[in-house]
Amino acid sequence: MCSPPSGSRIPTRRSDTVVQNEKKRSVFSRPGWWQDLRYLLRGIPQTREHLFSTLNVARRADLVDDDTLQMMRRVIEVSDLQVEQVMVSRGQMVTVDVNQTLEEVLPAIPEAAPSRFPVTDGDKDGVVGILLAKDLLHRQQQSGSNGLPWATVLRPAVFIPESKRLNVLLQEFRDSRNHMAIVVNEYGSVVGLVTIEDVLEQIVGNIEDEHDLDGATGMVLRRGSGFCVIKAMLPVESFNQLYGLNLDPLEYDTMGGLVTGSLGHVPRRGETIKFDQFTAEVLSADSRRPRLLRITLLSADETPAQ
């Protein structure tokens, strides 16, 4: 058989073996492969870092998608969170006073979207029970509105410390089938409320409004000439520093609390309220609180004379 001329090349088809070898080499050329291998060889995760690394390996192997990976991480991390980090603050609480008449209470039900309301006696430190909208409406249908002792349908309020861990609270919610708790500080003063939805949101993540800005992590999402878009949780004190205003930070902790308290109900998307030096438009809200606000500063001729 004749040998091919020196220097000539014979066209060849890349074998499956060559392709597989290249794939293997590409795995080992990927940054972090050695760390992944070490974790896999260790077997059962012994630390949280080890567990997270194992989950990342599963993601790289396409065993789970990005959303599933993030949810699994949040399930693990929820035990690090305390109630005070996710609660609805006192200033944003929508309450019903036990001394109100039925005629005064009923209009608040369709206005304020939540299905559960803390009932107070005088102020927010005096929570006497929880009113479920369905209980009140059911009693009204049965008895009519004349002389209805609506307060008899109240359910007991559950009080929890602001330091309680979310994983513990979630288990308590499941065991008791109670979906709302009143949060108190070390002195026994009411500082907010928390619902099972607030806890679950830490696991499944926020459902953002279409007006929200992707990837925004700060409280001030956009700032232009004479306006800004802010998260409703922006502290009043921080807003004062932003624009040199003097809103009272002791009356309301957050801008969302200020808007909620001034309106007298949980704001709905599209609602606008005018203050002395600015207007606030609700860009995003859920059934329990505003989430996103557009603040527009008033010009000198629009500002009321002091």
Structural class by helix and strand composition: alpha+beta
CATH structural class of the largest domain? Alpha Beta
- The name of the CATH architecture of the largest domain is Roll
What order do the SSEs take from the amino end to the carboxyl end, as H and E? HHHHEEHHEEHEHEEHEEHHEEE
Largest sheet: 5 strands, antiparallel
Domain tally: 3
Total strands: the figure is 12
Low-pLDDT windows of residues: 7-12, 23-29, 207-217
Q: Could you please say which CATH topology of the largest domain applies here?
A: CBS-domain
| Global shape | globular
Can you walk me through this structure?
Helices cover 34% and strands 21% of the residues. By secondary structure, it is of the alpha+beta class. It has three domains: 27-64, no CATH class; 84-204, CBS-domain, CATH 3.10.580; 220-297, Uridine Diphospho-n-acetylenolpyruvylglucosamine Reductase, domain 3 (2-Layer Sandwich). The strands form three sheets. It has a five-stranded antiparallel beta sheet with strand order 8-9-12-11-10, covered by helices on one side. Helix 3 packs antiparallel against helix 4. Residues 7-12, 23-29 and 207-217 have low confidence and may be disordered.
